[in-house]
Automatic annotation (TrEMBL):
<dbReference type="GO" id="GO:0005524">
    <property type="term" value="F:ATP binding"/>
</dbReference>
<dbReference type="InterPro" id="IPR003439">
    <property type="entry name" value="ABC_transporter-like_ATP-bd"/>
</dbReference>
<dbReference type="InterPro" id="IPR027417">
    <property type="entry name" value="P-loop_NTPase"/>
</dbReference>
<dbReference type="InterPro" id="IPR003593">
    <property type="entry name" value="AAA+_ATPase"/>
</dbReference>
<protein>
    <submittedName>
        <fullName>ATP-binding protein</fullName>
    </submittedName>
</protein>
<keyword id="KW-0547">Nucleotide-binding</keyword>
<feature type="domain" description="ABC transporter">
    <location>
        <begin position="3"/>
        <end position="205"/>
    </location>
</feature>
<dbReference type="InterPro" id="IPR017871">
    <property type="entry name" value="ABC_transporter-like_CS"/>
</dbReference>
<dbReference type="Pfam" id="PF00005">
    <property type="entry name" value="ABC_tran"/>
</dbReference>
<keyword id="KW-0067">ATP-binding</keyword>
<dbReference type="GO" id="GO:0016887">
    <property type="term" value="F:ATP hydrolysis activity"/>
</dbReference>
Length: 207
């Protein structure tokens, strides 16, 4: 981690009775977020991405979210939903760097064929779409990744590929990551620190 100034700073973040959450995530650092189903993990990620009204403060490199235009904040602090939405027919329509070397490298890193880029999304498996959604997210070159169970539909080999790609991206770009996972083994593998919510959305444990 190149610097001690937080990439992402959260102060008193709350939404619908969930929180408050305070956290400082350094460049290159990954924070795992866990808690029972319904605890509020998704709502907190959406609050950080400024997708829903919330309380508290989020800062990127010490700049408050309020000084960013909403689309700029959401590009820099990018949220990957557990069930990503698609607005066009094929993966290529969503990927700016599909034909660039970096785009090809990332496809290969996730064991995706380039021919897949032109297939209708409706004809791809949920695991293929989940990996493509991660590529779409990285395409925007975010400084913070908010990952909501990004390997939920994947087998062990592809889980390892996703974990490696995210780790490489964060290390290369000094990006921060908040990774929601129900898998304790995955949280230990990917995260430098962990934070847990109880069933009522309060922070109960940090490590
Ligand atoms: N837009 C919303 N407005 C009000 N309540 C909501 C909204 N979205 C979800 N909820 C509720 O807020 C609580 C937290 O939901 P959330 O999706 O954040 O849980 P989660 O911890 O991500 O769960 P899971 O592990 O099952 O994905 C749940 O009780 C849910 O029903």
């Amino acid at each position: 981690m190149a610097s001690t100034r937080p990439r992402l700073l959260l102060r008193g973040l709350s939404i619908g009775g969930i929180g408050p959450l305070d956290a400082a995530i350094a460049p290159g650092e990954c924070l795992a977020l866990s808690g029972p189903s319904g605890a509020g993990k998704t709502r907190l990620l959406r609050a950080i991405a400024d997708l829903d009204p919330h309380g508290g403060e989020c800062r990127l490199d010490d700049r408050p979210a309020g000084v960013f235009a909403a689309p700029a904040w959401r590009r820099a602090v990018a949220y990957l939903p557990a069930e990503p939405a698609w607005w066009a027919d094929t993966p290529r329509d969503h990927l700016r760097t599909a034909d660039a070397p970096a785009g090809h490298d990332r496809l290969a890193a996730l064991d995706l064929e380039t021919t897949m880029l032109d297939r209708p999304l409706t004809q791809l498996s949920s695991g293929q779409r989940q990996r493509l959604a991660l590529l779409r997210l990285l395409d925007g070159q975010p400084q913070v990744l908010l990952l909501d169970e990004p390997t939920a539909n994947l087998d062990a080999d592809n889980i390892a590929r996703v974990e490696a790609l995210v780790a490489d991206y964060c290390a290369e770009r000094d990006a921060a990551c908040v990774w929601v996972s129900h898998d304790p083994g995955q949280r230990r593998r990917v995260a430098h620190r962990q934070l847990a919510l109880d069933g009522r959305g309060r922070v109960t444990a940090c490590s």
